[in-house]
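Hey,
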Amino acid sequence: MDQATTALTTMRAVSQDSAGAPDVLKVIETRRPVAGRGEILVRVHAAGVNPADWKTRERGEFADGTRPPFTLGWDVAGVVAAVGDGVTLFEVGDAVFGMPRFPHPAGAYAEYVAAPARHFAPRPEGLDHIRAAALPLASLTAWQALVDTAHVRPGQRVLVHAAAGGVGHLAVQIAKARGAYVIGTASAAKHELLRSLGADELIDYRERDFTETVRDVDVVLDGLGGRTWARSLRTLRPGGTLVSILPPDDSFPVAEAEAAGVRAVFMLVEPDHAGLRAITSLVESGRLRVVVDRVLPVEEAAQAHVLGEAGRTTGKIVLSVRDSSG
């Protein structure tokens, strides 16, 4: 096979051969995927980084049992490079964003991704690839938790933990767009940003115990877990809902919630074309803004994981795979 042919059938991707620390992530040359029936091939411009990425890397296994070698990542923004049989939603050249195949392997830390067409949506007008790549997993998590699971309505009170994080800062805006009164927990340094995003009340978790000041909440969105689950129940009014976006363990307070007349549920985000369309509508109407903390080249995926695991980012970390200005 000559060099030109090889260039058309291979791509660069970030891969790992074993479980471990961020330094297991390496850039390799690998076979380019092909769009099958019902799929599109996306030329990736940017890939978002999420906690699910570094947890999978450290564990060395996807939820479906896939083990190394593999490529991480689900958040994708790019341009359709090829269209598989039966696809009518997109054409070659369309700018798209999405969260394909979650929680199964998607391989977003790569130059190309092939996945079902309906796991994507047209990129929001006015959004570049970087910001589009920051949206899918975090915004769909917030949307599916607040809208599809908790059914947030106008006038309700919503408590968002880790409100300045990737999911949290989007959840604040989605709850506000639904007409809710939004309370957020975050360090004081992040309060000004959260107020600009629509938060009505903010609690510095380093200085105040939210259980002593927050009452009569209809919905709690929790991405912290552990002791926060049971403590959050105290803030809910009868009939309220605690939605965890972290997998439950033995400490998840289902029985305690039932005894208190509230509901405690775990929600796992799913690929969602309709949800992406709803997110797009909020972005294009100016009611949803994604905050990007850091942009790193895909070759520095390991450093992106180091920064993410430190837990001090505001908003999202994004990997630039190729020129993402368009």
